[in-house]
Design a protein that fits this description.
361 residues, mainly alpha
């Protein structure tokens, strides 16, 4: 067994900084809504701080439990079965904002789509570890495709197309790193492209978002409103920003400033310097996660670390791209920063796995 080393302090520092910045920005971005509620305290900050505390506790526990315990078949299939059951159950839950994405237990909301990340990445890493030399055969590709399609399909039914695309893209990247032949990637893209087009065009609000992305000024008070207001926030920040708490767009101009569009508020209050600092911190997470995977003593640890590092970085990339109108609007949170307990806890658990793998060089 490889000698156990100290965990990656650079990665840990980047994670802590992102969470601390996230708490400050949630407090700032949600301040107008909090005042409108008439509460003596900011409930958004309290809930986000509670989720961060729970996430750090979970991360600390996972850091001290050998990641190789996840390699057991019972654990892998148990995680998948549990998550699949929750994804089915949520479809029969209460509707919120025309979607069924949350389960409510004792006043606490849980988003099963976030939990799917914690089940699918270990499953793919386990399959590659067992059948790595068969990466271009159906012995590996069939079970991975079936489980990815099952979880992604259930998530699409909520509906949450963004999270489903994120899962599929992460799995595709892992298979590519494992040595998947280009012909399979091209076939996968040829199948996925028309399916994705159908899922977008067949749903009115997704179709409106796509057309608004192509020309947001055509409907500035409707489908293009979010993109235009986000760009105004980003542009208003200039180089150094308007200052902490001085955002104008969070005053009911930009929808969801504390969640989906929190990066735009960062850019408005802290300017290009602050916005680039966030990108640098996520780049550090990706770099150190890739480094942990390269130094892992076995293929399972390698692809486990790469999977979670890619998942966090890709999610951050998509959220930032939405904020600066590089891709159509999606409901994908910015890890560690966006308001949302499920996203915070799941992201910190994923980082706990990364830090665990980093101890086994």
């Amino acid at each position: 067994m490889a000698k156990k080393l100290a965990f990656d302090r650079v990665l840990f520092t980047a994670i802590v900084l992102l969470v601390m910045i996230g708490l400050v920005m949630v407090y700032s971005a949600s301040a107008p809504m909090s005042r409108a509620q008439g509460r003596p305290f900011n409930l958004f900050l309290v809930k986000q701080a509670g989720a961060a505390l729970l996430g750090f506790l979970a991360m600390a526990v996972i850091m001290h439990v050998d990641y190789r315990r996840l390699r057991h078949a019972g654990v892998v299939w148990g995680l998948l079965a549990g998550v699949a059951a929750l994804l089915v159950l949520v479809l029969f839950g209460p509707e919120l904002n025309a979607t069924r994405r949350w389960l409510f237990v004792g006043g606490i909301s849980v988003q099963p789509a976030e939990l799917a990340k914690l089940a699918l990445v270990p499953f793919v890493a386990w399959q590659i570890d067992r059948k790595g030399e068969l990466v271009n055969s159906r012995e590996l590709l069939l079970p991975v495709a079936l489980m990815t399609g099952l979880l992604a399909g259930l998530i699409v039914l909520q509906p949450d197309l963004g999270s489903a695309v994120l899962l599929v893209a992460t799995v595709g990247t892992l298979l590519f790193l494992a040595g998947l032949a280009w012909r399979f990637l091209l076939v996968g893209a040829a199948v996925a492209a028309p399916l994705l087009w159908f899922l977008v065009i067949s749903v009115p609000y997704r179709r409106a978002r796509l057309f608004a992305f192509l020309d947001p000024e055509k409907d500035p008070l409707g489908a293009g409103f979010q993109a235009l207001q986000s760009l105004i926030a980003v542009g208003s920040g200039g180089l150094f920003g308007l200052g902490p708490g001085e955002s104008i767009q969070k005053l009911y101009f930009l929808p969801y400033p504390h969640s989906d569009f929190i990066y735009a508020i960062v850019a408005e209050e802290f300017g290009l310097i602050g916005a680039l600092a966030i990108v640098v911190l996520f780049s550090v997470v990706l770099w150190r996660g890739a480094r942990a995977g390269l130094r892992a003593p076995d293929p399972f640890g390698r692809f486990l670390a790469w999977g979670f590092a890619i998942l966090i970085a890709l999610q951050a990339f998509l959220n930032v791209s939405v904020a600066i109108a590089l891709v159509p609007t999606k409901g994908i949170p910015l890890p560690f920063l966006s308001y949302g307990g499920s996203s915070m806890v799941v992201s910190l658990i994923a980082c706990g796995v990364l830090l665990n793998v980093s101890q086994h060089g």
